[in-house]
Amino acid sequence: MEGIIRGDLPPATPAWVQSEVASSHSAPQQIPPEMHDKVFSWAEVKDLVEKKRLEVIRRKPSERVVYKAWCKDIINAYGSITVYMYTERLQWTPLPSSSAETGPIFEACDPAPFRDPRDYKILRNDWPYGSFEARITHLIVWSKPRIPTYEETGFPTTEAGQLIEDFVQKIFVSRLEREAPGASEKVVWFKNWDALQSVKGLEHIHVLVKDVPEAIVDEWTGEEALQS
């Protein structure tokens, strides 16, 4: 798909690829002028997540321009951001049964998400949101099993939400509790609904942590932060 633009896409192109390409060519996100340089405090971030105001949690306009340019380059090179992610960052291989309709399907050790460490991978967000106050680290947890969601809202089902909550408590909160009490106040998670996702072909959740040493983040991700 070298030199791809929206009009070059063949009719059989998977919907999730079409969406990624459309997003990379879309107009800049419309944000009220007073919000352009808004930096959300940790308390504000937690409040937005609790109220499911996820559309407010975003990159700054200047960051979005650079991110979109990166997306176009990746799509030109790999065909989609999804392919880049599972090939280069996750190093997962889709099953032969994967199709344009299903998207990439991966062999999982457990059909439920986040129960088997071999079925998920924790990575830093390579393009974190600059609208967060300093000392907030943005992690993404990628999952081989699909996360059940309510069709009408795109949010995880009650059962899936509990699985995610249990996972976050086990992996993130319990680890931080070994350092100091009150760790639950330093961790929050959310799952974007479809319209807000830039990598639609792969299941993932976002985990935000505050005031966590880089060494602990390295433990979770298995890799050191990229040097800017």
What does this structure look like?
With 228 residues, this protein is of the alpha+beta class. It is built from six helices and four strands. Strands 1-2-4-3 form a four-stranded antiparallel beta sheet, with helices on both faces. Helix 1 (15-25) packs across helix 3 (61-78). Residues 1-12 and 24-28 have low confidence and may be disordered.
Provide key terms for this protein.
alpha+beta; 4-stranded antiparallel β-sheet; globular; disordered N terminus
User: What percent of residues adopt helix (DSSP H or I)?
Assistant: 25-40%
Tertiary shape:
globular
Task: Tell me the fraction of residues in β-strands, as a range.
Answer: 5-15%
Number of strands: 4
Summarize the structure.
The protein is α+β, with helices and mostly antiparallel strands.
How are the SSEs placed, and which strands pair?
Blueprint: H1 15-25, H2 42-50, H3 61-78, H4 81-89, E1 120-124, E2 136-143, H5 158-177, E3 187-190, E4 203-210, H6 214-221
Antiparallel strand pairs: 1-2, 2-4, 3-4
Helix pairs in contact: 1-3
